[in-house]
Amino acid sequence: MMMYVYDLIAGVLAGICHVVLYLLLIRYDRMPYKMMIILSIVFTILLGFVVTVTGYPEWNSILLLLFLLSLGLMQNELSFMQNLYFALISLIGITFARKFILELMFQLFMVSPFNLYLWTTSIMHLMIIILIGSCIVLWRKKIGRFAAYIESSRLYYISYALLFIGFLLSLILTTPSTRFLAIANERYGEMSVIIAFILFMILLLMAIVGSYLAKERFMEEQAERLNAERLDYVEKLEYMHADLANFRHDYMNILMALDTSVKAKNLQQIERIYYEVIAPTSDLMNNHELDIVKLASIKIPEVKSVLSVKVIAAQQQGIKVMIDIPQTIEKIKMPIVDFIRVISILVDNAIEEAVVSDEKKVQIAFFEMNDLVYFIVKNSCRQKEINLHRLYEKRYSNKNGRRGYGLFSLKRILKQMNTATLETTFIAPYFTQTLILKKEN
Q1: Would you tell me how many other CB atoms lie within 10 Å of the CB of residue 439?
Q2: In a domain, 13, yes or no
Q3: For residue 380, is pLDDT > 90?
Q4: Nearest Cα residue to 10 out of 54, 55, 40, 51
Q5: What pLDDT was estimated at residue 434?
Q6: Which of 414, 428, 356, 353 is nearest to 385 (CA)?
Q7: What CATH number corresponds to the domain at position 407?
Q8: Among candidates 295, 276, 149, which has minimal Cα distance to 218?
Q9: Considering just the CA atoms, what is the radius of gyration of the chain in Å?
């Protein structure tokens, strides 16, 4: 009786592993974990019922593939062929891993001094599924990066062909009842096991190489992005330096004109210079351009340079930028690359909306309080209402054109962090995003 219980638990966990791995590969994160588990349990029970009633074990692989595809087609980011590719990876990868690890464990058990019982294989099967599930959870970030890399790499089409071969081998190795597959299993069963093992090792090697290359490309892209931000920062500084030089030149001319008027005691000319020349410069002194100096309180060079570029770009578009950084910020408990991506999305969105609003205002606050670090971006809006519930959906946007990816990407980044939360509020005409981080010890 216990043997069937172990097999049932292993089957359910295997279904969950297939679903989780597939959703990680297609980068679909809108399905709640509870729903994912319920669907996996229901499908596993249904699959067992169909295989038992029909007597065709090969339905196990076919229906699992169709089930995974149905989940993938709920999102429209990937094509059908891409969804099929990742469904095959989930199906073949876990199926072959279970088979070969079980075979290895069984051979090791046979040479051990332990006794063999009816439930021994079931226990080993359950342990293998738990091991595979743990690896999927631990490597979830690497799986996502690998999936993003493999779509555009040369390994894509080669591995696609190997996966189709693997799918046919999985049908043959299930002790099928279909006449064609049964004959193939009878004639080429042993050879199929050898081919499947070689194929699995090749696919595993390709996955390892692909993961390494994905990491390398990811680091290169981040380095290029940071270099571009730094170059932009230098250009903005040169622009500011030119403005200050012009202001200094004009200021010296004003002093010379005043000096002449004062010596001549020409009050009418002094009054004219004041109202026509000096008074307008008060707008420059009051438009918060000097707020950028407050960024000096940020002791993280990458963050300071990115924010400087964003602030200067906003000011050049006629936006009033107000900055509040009351304390020195030296560390944050978040990978610096991810933090820069998050604040870039927040500030860029704020600027894009503020520039078309009536007030044209953006406020940025960066401070520490009660062991938490707050990064707040507040901007004026043209909208009277904003649907906050749909704001983070893919391709949903209040802007014109093909937008809606920024906040969706931001949500995916923060979802992988256990140190960051994002609060969103809208009180017309101001939209506020508050990023809260745990303070770095």
Answers
A1: 14
A2: yes
A3: yes
A4: 40
A5: 92
A6: 428
A7: 3.30.565.10
A8: 149
A9: 31
Write down the pLDDT at residue 392.
Answer: 57
Total domain count, the chain:
2
In contact, 319 and 348? CB cutoff 8 Å: no
Q: Does the predicted model carry a pTM greater than 0.70? A: no
CB atoms within 10 A of CB 253: 11
Residues across the chain: 441
Examine the domain organization and report whether 55 and 173 are in the same domain. Answer: yes
CA distances from 243 to 155, 237, 239, 246, 441 (A): 52, 10, 6, 5, 41
Contact (Cβ atoms closer than 8 angstroms) between residue 141 and residue 416: yes
Which tokens hold the place of 394? Answer: 């893919």
State how far Cα 128 lies from the chain centre. 29
Which of 168, 189, 223 finishes a domain? 223
Dihedrals φ, ψ of 328, to 5°?
Answer: -75, 130
Question: Contact at 8 Å (CB) between 15 and 46?
Answer: no
Highest mean pLDDT among 194-208, 328-342, 366-380 belongs to 366-380
Average pLDDT over residues 110-129: 81
Mean per-residue pLDDT, 137-159: 80
- Band (pLDDT 50/70/90 cuts) for residue 2 is low
Could you tell me the residue range of the domain that residue 171 belongs to? 2-223
pLDDT in tens, 38-82: 888 888 888 888 888 888 888 888 888 888 888 887 766 678 888
The answer to whether residues 345 and 409 touch, using CB atoms and an 8 Å cutoff, is yes
**Whether 292 and 211 share a structural domain:** no
Q: Is the peptide bond before 176 cis (omega within 30 degrees of 0)?
A: no
Q: What is the pLDDT of residues 150-201, one digit of tens each?
A: 877 777 888 888 998 988 888 888 777 788 888 887 887 778 888 888 888 8
